[in-house]
Design brief:
- The complex is a heterodimer.
- Helices cover about 70% and strands about 5% of the residues of chain A.
- Chain A contains 21 helices and five strands.
- Chain A has a three-stranded antiparallel β-sheet, with no helix packed on it. Chain A has a two-stranded antiparallel sheet with strand order 1-2.
- Chain A starts with a helix and ends in a 5-residue tail after the last helix.
- Chain B has a two-stranded antiparallel sheet with strand order 1-2.
């Protein structure tokens, strides 16, 4: 050390605890290797190589997360916190990503190949594209993109300063913008979705970044704990901190699809390839809620008497808007999109109760919701007519008669979304509602309950359509998937039941995860 | 000790699982298996009743407690007192009868036959659990879960308007359930303020709750139970559901399931929120009286047989609610007995009418006439069931209706007098229905299609009539089981019976 000093002022080497960030490193490394695979591995072997790489990376990363479960410390010069919530959410993201990857890997449901365009740059409907389709080309670049996104998601809830958070936000978002535009069928819709997602996503990033700048101006640091300290020292909240906090929150509310920042959700969910929609709906929500919780609890905890009333309004607005508009939907993907918005409103109850109970309840809800969402979208990929997926509700009439098992799985996911007891959705709702009442937000919980009853209508309506009506003669068919999707649906359905009937192990897990370290 | 209650619940559940793997085309086997499993549950109930110590019927017995979700103080806890035991017995007695009577209910449906019986068994399991649960969370879960089998029973096997009816039923039920959920969470949060939070019923009784909050929590519980029971004005789902259901579903829905509402009022509303119960009594009693009269009047005006029976039930549920909230031991014992008697009476009415309606292919009263000439057994048994419904002395409903009225009269004379009018109205709706359907000219189509009850059908009807007559003549054994449990409720709400009225001395003052 002294020798270094003697040689003049040196750049201080940052201390990086590689073992602590190993889960993220594994995923990012695999993503980079995936790019190398794209460059050097022959086309015929690429898909296999990418799949092996992806699944191995996810499993190994999950193994590292489990191995680190007791760890509670700041690492990488305080830029990343490895604490209970971060680890639990990283684990959740990896599990959700694993199941979503299974659905993305499916190649048997579409006679032309997988869910992605053979070459996203080819003009939709062009001869070029038809030729590629005929040759059976598959676009394996989706896998590194997917892994980058997963890595960003994992970093997002663990980041402890706003800049790291911003970087994570971009890493998770950019690949998703691309993935959203790669659907094999209805390509124009898909490209439109990608553009919308990109523009609005960039917009929200702008909000986040501007808020970060204002908070930096207030606290003199972008670190969350420094902002908390500044808030506790200054007794009065200045305009700077209120404006900064608002903008950062708005950026995150965009990502979790809370009203009134939800408009992008339905179009993007509908346009994106369905396996990606499932991944995006589940993964982004988990990661963004993790970041939102950390900012609200760690940095802005001192300001909670100011932001809680606003959050009340946002939560109520989100569940009401999501539910009311979902009532009028006739497209299954669109309905699930609005249902996702409504679910965001319920989860916000956990955020605004600002307690350990609220934190653990939200985390449980995220896991339950994430798995059910991936499962539900996986089922959507299976109901097809010659033009691709049959997503109009009228095409699902009588599905229960023709494919009882697939319809039953979908019904199970819908019941979980509706929060019927003995499903995971109920356990999650129960946890956040309890936290809400204990945290003094009884009014919001009462509204949430009434909204749940209304929401039940459109979930149950689909069940009625599937089971109580006769199928149309020329209706769509439920294709028999390969083991990829079968395993995904089976896993998520099993998780939905287990988390509903025997939730205690996971409740233990979120309770042991404890609170954010400061 | 042997876990009787869990076993009684698990047997039908296993039965439904077994039914699901019965191969297609073996419908008869599925039906026989369903009957066997439900009879097995009945036998187990008999053993459980023998293990039940009737001298301590006010206490929870045959209890089992296992940790379930310790994070929220939730246990798997079951146990029965006298009231719960008789309702549990009502359930397990009615299910085999329903299966026997509904042997062909699902045959004409496009949905699978074994599915119908599997759903009936699942429903039985949940209902047993609801009556046996002593942990409020467990109770709530099963209370909600019960909705689903009924939803599918109506929606898959019901009449032409079944989608609408099943949806209305489910949404109404879910709304009630969710309101209950909020109240339940509120109760849990209160319990967590002093010591670990719990859902255990016996621990929660006597919990000190702020009076204003207590009223809100009471309302949450009460609305949920009033929807389930159903009390006017929350009854509108019942006629629709009843009109579209198969007779078997109706028996289980109105005969058993709706009792969960009145059972919940007696067990949970009164015991957990005694002060709020006293506070709400005037309104509840007015609603009950309205229900008694309104249900009876609407029943008289019905042209649809199933709807008519549904409206008589609305009237009778008013009686049960009245008995519970009159807060005298006679009235509450009467109300509990009424739950049982109404269950059996409604079962007989729906099952016999079901036979009739299925033969004729119409539920419209105007399509019938002179049935007693072509089907004397059917008409005769129906008359007995109808007489029980209008509370003819000697038949079971009389005892309970009488007890409710006497018990109410002790405290609220005017209410009892007004309610007694419904006895006249009941005679009207039952006898008019009998007159229009069973007597008079026999139209050709009725002569052609309606034939008399056969062996299997008699087998289902005879036990019901035997019980109706038996409980009418000798209700005391059942009352002996009910009374101690009712005394416990009376004690918990701090209510005492008004002093016996010696010459014209008003006893109103004894009410706290």
């Amino acid at each position: 050390m002294s020798a270094l000093l003697a040689a003049g002022p040196a750049f201080p080497t940052p201390v990086i605890e590689y073992s602590a960030i190993a889960p993220m490193l594994v995923v990012f490394t695999a993503a980079l290797l995936g790019v190398v695979v794209e460059a050097f591995v022959p086309r015929l072997l690429r898909r296999r190589a990418q799949l092996v790489l992806t699944f191995v990376a996810l499993v190994v990363a999950l193994g590292f997360v489990v191995a680190e479960r007791g760890r509670r410390e700041f690492v990488v010069e305080g830029a990343v916190a490895i604490d209970g919530p971060a680890l639990f959410l990283q684990g959740t993201i990896l599990v959700v990503a694993f199941v979503a990857a299974l659905v993305m890997a499916e190649r048997s449901v579409d006679p032309a190949g997988d869910a992605f365009a053979p070459r996203a740059s080819a003009l939709p409907g062009s001869i070029d594209e038809q030729e590629l389709t005929a040759r059976g080309w598959l676009q394996t670049e989706v896998w590194p993109l997917f892994l980058f996104s997963v890595g960003g998601m994992m970093l997002f809830p663990a980041a402890t300063d706003l800049l790291t958070m911003f970087v994570a936000l971009e890493i998770l978002s950019l690949p998703l913008y691309l993935l959203a535009g790669m659907a094999r069928r209805r390509r124009l819709l898909s490209q439109e979705a990608a553009l919308k997602y990109f523009v609005l996503g960039a917009f929200s990033s702008g909000f986040f970044l501007y808020g970060t700048a204002l908070l930096y101006g207030y606290a003199g640091s972008v670190s969350l704990s420094a902002i908390a300290t500044a808030l506790s020292v200054n007794s009065q909240a200045s305009l700077l901190v209120v404006a900064g906090a608002t903008l950062v929150t708005v950026g995150l509310l965009f990502k979790v699809a809370a009203a009134p920042f939800h408009q992008w959700t339905p179009d993007v969910y509908v346009g994106a390839p369905t396996p990606v929609t499932g991944f995006m709906a589940a993964g982004v929500k988990v990661a963004a809620f993790g970041a939102l919780l950390r900012i609200m609890y760690v940095a802005l905890g001192g300001l909670r008497w100011d932001w809680r009333p606003v959050m009340y309004v946002v939560a109520v607005l989100t569940m009401v808007v999501g539910t009311i508009i979902a009532l009028t939907q006739s497209d299954i993907k669109r309905m699930l999109a609005y249902s996702a918005i409504a679910q965001t409103g319920f989860m916000l109850i956990g955020v605004l109760s600002t307690s350990a109970l609220g934190l653990s309840g939200t985390m449980f809800y995220l896991l339950a919701y994430g798995l059910a969402t991936v499962g539900a979208f996986a089922v959507v990929t299976l109901v097809r007519d010659p033009a691709g997926e049959a997503t109009h509700l009228s095409q699902w009439v009588g599905l229960g008669k023709r494919s009882p098992i697939v319809a039953a799985a979908f019904a199970l996911f819908l019941l979980a979304f509706a929060g019927i007891p003995l499903t995971s959705g109920f356990s999650g709702k129960f946890a956040v509602f309890t936290a809400g009442v204990a945290g003094g937000a009884t009014a919001v919980v009462v509204i949430a309950v009434i909204v749940s009853a209304v929401a039940a209508f459109f979930y149950i309506r689909v069940i009625v359509l599937m089971f109580f009506s006769e199928p149309a003669a020329d209706g769509p068919v439920v294709v028999v998937p390969s083991s990829f999707t079968t395993v995904a649906v089976a896993l998520t359905a099993a998780a939905t039941i287990v988390l509903g009937v025997l939730p205690q192990p996971v409740f233990d897990l979120v309770a042991h995860a404890g609170v954010f370290i400061r | 000790m042997f876990p009787w209650l869990t076993t009684i619940g698990v047997v039908p559940l296993v039965g439904s699982a077994v039914l699901m793997v019965v191969p297609k085309g073996r419908e008869l086997l599925a039906k026989q298996l369903a009957l066997a499993f439900s009879l097995f549950a009945l036998v187990l109930t008999v053993f459980a009743a023998l293990a039940f110590d009737t001298t301590r019927a006010g206490e929870l017995q045959l209890t089992e407690v296992h940790q379930w979700i310790p994070a929220f103080g939730i246990n798997y806890a079951v146990g029965v007192d006298g009231v719960a035991l008789v309702l549990l017995a009502l359930t397990t007695i009615l299910v085999p009868i329903v299966i026997l009577a509904g042997w062909h209910d699902a045959d004409s449906s496009t949905a699978s036959v074994k599915g119908y019986f599997a759903l009936v068994l699942i429903l039985e399991a949940f209902t047993v659990g609801v009556f046996a649960a002593t942990d409020l969370f467990l109770f709530y879960i099963l209370f909600e879960a019960m909705l689903l089998p009924v939803f599918f029973l109506i929606g898959r096997y019901g009449g032409p308007q079944r989608s609408y009816a099943s949806m209305k039923f489910l949404l109404y039920g879910l709304l009630g359930g969710l309101i209950l959920l909020v109240a339940l969470i509120g109760l849990y949060v209160v319990s967590a303020q002093n010591g670990p939070g719990t859902f255990d019923f016996t621990t929660l009784v006597g919990l000190h709750i702020d009076p204003i909050l207590q009223r809100w929590l009471f309302l949450g519980f009460f609305i949920a139970f009033a929807i389930k029971a159903p009390l006017v004005p929350l009854h509108t789902w019942l006629p629709d559901a009843a009109a579209e259901s198969t007779p078997g579903t109706n028996v289980l829905l109105i005969g058993v399931l709706d009792k969960v509402g009145t059972f919940g009022m007696l067990r949970y509303c009164l015991e957990l929120f005694p002060d709020a119960s006293h506070w709400a009594t005037p309104v509840v009693i007015v609603l009950c009286v309205i229900g008694i009269i309104y249900g009876a009047l609407l029943a008289i005006g019905q042209t649809d047989l199933y709807r008519l029976i549904a409206y008589t039930s609305v009237s009778h549920f008013g009686f049960i609610g009245l008995g519970i909230f009159a807060m005298t031991s006679q009235a509450q014992a009467g109300a509990t007995l009424y739950m049982v008697n109404h269950g059996f009476t409604i079962a007989a009415l729906f099952i016999i009418l079901g036979f009739l309606v299925n033969r004729r292919g119409s539920r419209n009263i105007a399509d019938f006439g002179g049935v007693q000439k072509v089907a004397p057994l059917l008409a005769g048994t129906f008359l007995v069931a109808g007489m029980s419904s209008l509370a003819l002395p000697g038949l079971s409903s009389f005892v309970s209706e009488f007890l409710v009225l006497v018990g109410t009269f002790e405290r609220y004379k005017a209410v009892a007098v007004i309610s007694a009018v419904a006895i006249v109205l009941a005679a009207l709706y039952i006898l008019l229905m009998y007159l229009r359907t069973m007597t008079g000219e026999t139209p050709d189509i009725v002569r052609e299609r309606v034939h008399d009850l056969k062996g299997r059908e008699m087998l289902a009807v005879v036990p019901l009539l035997a019980i109706i007559i038996g409980l009418g003549v000798a209700p005391q054994p059942v009352l002996d089981v009910i009374n101690p449990a009712v005394d416990r409720v009376m004690h918990a709400i701090g209510a005492t019976d008004p002093a016996p009225v010696v010459p014209a001395q008003a006893a109103e003052g004894t009410q706290p």
